[in-house]
Amino acid sequence: MPGRASRPVIGVIANAFMINDTFPVSAAGEMNLQAVAKAADCLPLVIPALPEAMSVPDLLDACDGFVFTGGRANVHPSHYGHDETEAHKPFDPKRDGVSLPLIRAAVEAGAPVLGICRGFQEMAVAFGATLHPEIRDLPGRMNHRMPPDGTVEEKFALRHKVEFLKGGEFHRILGVTEAMTNTLHGQGVMETGPRVVIEGTAPDGTPEALSIRDAPGFALGAQWHVEWMAWESPVGQAVYRAFGEAARARAARRLAA
Fold first, then answer.
1. CATH number of 9-256, picked from 3.30.450.20, 3.40.710.10, 3.40.50.880, 3.30.565.10
2. Which residues are catalytic?
3. What is the pTM of this model?
4. Choosing a second label site near 110 at 20 to 30 A (CA), which of 65, 80, 211, 242?
């Protein structure tokens, strides 16, 4: 394909925002973009949260892989058959409208997919899982939400370990069966769909890592913010390196086709 970028192009999903409660925008955090560029050595391309302007086939053609990032808003419970409550809010229906069909199509097409925090939950929901609106309300669970005080560095500090499934994709990529992670989420996977494989859990049993069964390509999700300083973190480096390698392989296949 003439004019193809020398680095794989990675679509990074944006969130819908209002600036000054007046101007609607689609925005992606710089940390997510830097992680793609620095840790995966790929070219990040922001995908707007505009379902009416997006075409899944066009996105699959334009991008070699996709990152579904974290966000303040939650997946609307109607997407997993639950009724809306105050605990489920806030929502970002525009992002839902782009992310969920794109995740399904990208996984089936073998395009590398990495889900982070909300993106982890989107991957789970896209393949049949349900979510609990407030994990800390469940018996025996810790508070996984972002600490209310402290610097940004303190909020994203390592807070608990994740134990990985032996022989799973995370174990293969990381070369370890457990690692310390940050934790900044309120919701969490409750019931897994038939293709959602939980590959990592927190000490309280909360699902923290997943893969998609029978996916033809890279399809992993991390409930923690693996993008945080990914180019300096051994765990972040390993995950993004594997993701970047998968994107390069897909780009090479498409170029040769």
1. 3.40.50.880
2. 117, 225, 227
3. 0.95
4. 80
